[in-house]
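Lay summary. Proteins are chains of building blocks that fold into shapes, and those shapes determine what they do. In this project we predict the shape from the chain. Here is one chain we studied, written as its sequence of building blocks.
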Amino acid sequence: MNIDAQAFAKEWVAAWNAHDIERILAHYSDDFEIITPMIKMSLGIDTGSLVGKPAIGDYWRAALEKMPDLHFELLDVCEGVNSVAVYYKSVLDKLAIEVMEFGAEGKVERVVVHYC
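And here is the predicted shape, written in a compact code that computers can read:
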């Protein structure tokens, strides 16, 4: 699998900045998992994890409604083996790193989010 990390990260940030949930979700497999402290904080799920486009899409739709001025600023991108780490300025001026692992079809299958 060959992912252009820079192109992926630019498109991913652009999709978020456009607040286009279908465009955002197009980057992910149907059964992807996301692990983030924001899920633990906002939904009270101890694992901080959600699985699948329906559940994660609902979570992200609610987040976009709560933050109509959401805007991400891409700071850097790192490549791994079948993975990309996107470093960006997130909401409330928090810095974030999302490590995204890709499956054989070139879609993100697992995401782990870190905040600074």
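What the prediction tells us: Residues 53-66 form the longest helix (14 residues).
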